[in-house]
Amino acid sequence: MGLPPTEILLSPWLLAVLGLVVGSFLNVVIHRLPQLLEREWLADAAGYLQDSATMTRVLGAPLARTDELARQGAALAAEVDALPAMSLSRPRSRCPQCGHQLAWHENIPLLGWLRLGGKCSSCGTRISARYPIVEVLTGALFAAAAWQAGPTAAAAVYCVALALLIAAAFIDLDTTLLPDNLTLPLIGLGLAAAWQRWIPVSLADAALGAFFGYFALWFVAAVYKLVRGVQGMAEGDFKLLAGLGALLGWQALPTIILLSSAVGAVVGIFMIVARGHGRNVPIPFGPYLAGGGVAALFFGAQLNGLWSGV
Question: Quick one: which of 62, 135, 175, 231 is 20 to 30 A from 153 by CA?
Fold first, then answer.
């Protein structure tokens, strides 16, 4: 008799290949989602600038000033409207230097980059190695999820969560943004998976994980702002830890916070001392939270034993 379909579909090898494909799409998400969101925010800002009632109510601006702001808003709106159409699926991938549209065989995950030698086939501009790194990372983590959870619904849940974490981490690294489009689905995924018993976390533990994950970082940020007078952490970090808490349960939060804080502190000190990184320039915390969450997912029991001395 052959293997059941679930054992084939959720096997490490098949999920590794799927991860390469998903990683290719995540590269698009990492590059385009922040731009799409920032276009929306600029369009909203342009609309507010043209709202004379709001400008008068908030700024107490006189008529001449509101007219000037409205003209600036109209100019900004025209610039945003003039931008080329963009979505996560359109336009097709192309070289940012010469505009060469990638052929289907150049878009094959990992193999396309290797075949091109890491360069554009048209102009020879180097293609960042981060593209295949994201693809390989996604494939490796998908395979690890299958190995960890076996051919179960948990493996599929963990793969979706890992894809969200990878996209969120790299976007935060590039832009210091953690979009709600990624963090809120992670919270919902954890709660829904716990409710349906797809993962070994009870719904109560998932709900407490989401609550305490958000509240823990919110409290730290509130105290920091009270003491230093500046915002030390963004709300996206709160939501990301809430998502990890929902997925892994409140019991995993100490491990995630400890690992992400320790690694973040070491990297931050290194960047300030060795790289001359400005102390007032924010360092994204999302990648460290995501890394801590991945470590807790795969090695949570061992790490908890290490902290507790058991």
Answer: 135
Dump pLDDT digits (tens) for 16-59. 999 999 999 999 999 999 999 999 999 999 999 999 888 888 88
* SS3 per residue for the chain: CCCCHHHHHCCHHHHHHHHHHHHHHHHHHHHHHHHHHHHHHHHHHHHHHCCHHHHHHHHCCCHHHHHHHHHHHHHHHHHHHHCCCCCCCCCCCECCCCCCECCHHHHCCCHHHHHHCCECCCCCCECCCHHHHHHHHHHHHHHHHHHHHCCCHHHHHHHHHHHHHHHHHHHHHHHCCCCHHHHHHHHHHHHHHHHCCCCCCCHHHHHHHHHHHHHHHHHHHHHHHHHHCCCCCCHHHHHHHHHHHHHHCHHHHHHHHHHHHHHHHHHHHHHHHHCCCCCCCCCCCHHHHHHHHHHHHHHHHHHHHHHHCC
pLDDT tens for 73-123 read 999 999 999 999 999 988 888 877 787 788 877 788 888 888 888 888 888
What are phi and psi for residue 94, nearest 5 degrees? -150, 165
Please give the Cα distance from 141 to 146 (Å, whole number).
9
